[in-house]
Write a structure and sequence with these properties.
single chain; about 180 residues; Lipocalin; eight-stranded antiparallel β-barrel; 1 helix
């Protein structure tokens, strides 16, 4: 990637959300989000092919709509926000697979556990907003196994049902502003 033609983009946090879904008791889904996050893209072309993407979320900003559950997720049982305050992602490749589809591969780090993940990205397009800012949007989805990242807390009900699923679905709806 040539640095003389590099375009930098920063996330527009007011128009972006980072959410996850996990099965609870196998019968329902709990949705959570990170309220404090940052991301950037560096690209040397208009279609973002081979762009470098980085992301981080503040673990202490996790929110699921239940304070007790949020505190449990921040505790040593799960994310351990005191010892590991950030979750990070660094892309290894961003390849176009269709007209608006991409495959995003990179290293996700949670609790100092680094695993390569593969995510699907759908490019929503690029537009100029009413204030003259160039914006680009993406929907990024994928699945991870929480135990791969040291999130191993588990419990079983009396009937033998797992309390929290190992599979976590990720959904990032993000908008970036061209610098």
């Amino acid at each position: 990637m040539s640095t003389d033609t590099l375009t930098k983009w920063t996330i527009d946090t007011a128009h972006s959300e980072i959410t996850f879904k996990v099965k609870h008791l196998v019968i329902s889904t709990v949705t959570g989000k990170f309220k404090d996050f940052d991301a950037s893209i560096e690209s040397d072309n208009e279609d973002f092919e081979n762009a470098k993407i980085s992301f981080e979320a503040n673990i202490d900003s996790i929110e699921t709509g239940n304070e007790d559950r949020d505190n449990h997720l921040k505790s040593e049982d799960f994310f351990n926000a005191i010892e590991y305050p950030k979750m990070t992602f660094e892309s290894a490749s961003f390849k176009r697979t269709g007209e608006r589809e991409y495959k995003l591969i990179g290293d996700l780090t949670i609790r100092n556990n680094i695993r390569q993940v593969e995510l699907d990205a759908e490019y929503g397009g690029t537009v100029v907003d009413p204030y003259g800012n160039t914006k680009a949007g993406f929907d990024v989805t994928g699945k991870i196994n929480r135990k791969d990242f040291g999130l191993t807390w588990s419990a079983v009900t009396e009937a033998g049902s797992v309390v929290v699923s190992d599979e976590v679905k990720l959904n990032l709806n993000v908008q970036f502003t061209k610098n």
